[in-house]
Amino acid sequence: MRAIARSVAATARWSVPATIALWLGAAVLPAPVAAQEDFRAAELDRPTRIEDAHPIKFREWEFQSGLRGSLGEGDRGLLGLLEFKTGLFRNGQMGVEIEGGVERPSADRTGGGIEAASAHLLYGLARETVSLPAVAVRLDASTPGAGAIGHDDWQFGVMGIATRSLGRLRLHGNGGYRIAGEADGGDYWRFGLGADYPLGLFSRAILADLYVEAPVSAGRARVWAEIGTRFQVSNWSVLDFGLATRLDEWDEGNANVEIVIGVSRSFGIPGLTRVPLYPNPTIP
User: What is the pTM of this model?
Assistant: First the structure.
């Protein structure tokens, strides 16, 4: 157990610097195998919290990293994310994530660590038709973390996702339930509505959402409003940038603002996949 604790603590020390290094490296390294990244994908925390109902392509691999900085009065911090996922089977994806960083809840107190390590499964139940939206379900599991910002207990979640196209505009609806220990705030419902729209020559998109976490027990709902953009810099890489704010904190005079920046990079493994260069609408 001491060895595990030392390992987790060591990971906490390099989590944010590693995120920055990998974020820069992923944007410039050449891709060994042709693949394509979708600048319109609405992915969790890239840069908004709303997700679309489309898993990544079968046998495609994707690496994501990002930083979320909080600029709130008396509540500042920097959280880094590393995620690796793959289209392991048709209409489905699996992924693993780790989040860590530092937090300054007050002027005289600062803490850091690993918030959690997580795994997820996203499965597309139905593709979009003329009359019906695309539908998917996502399952999540998170381990306890380490350090001052770490989760104390395991957490589990389930979320339903729907995506509907209206011309070039896409609308997304998310709704689910999260099981969490009392030390981490207890169970809560989560809901969100979002949209994305391509700009210019279809190499960038603007995204926006309204996201709510409503505790099952007594407590105030947490409400975020977010806006961001995704910009395709190559066939394989997409940069994202976003702004978020906690609307429920405004009545306390604390207009907590978050800045989100990250990169997503797709790639293939020789012998397993050969994804044609973007764009190719014939790809299922």
Answer: 0.80
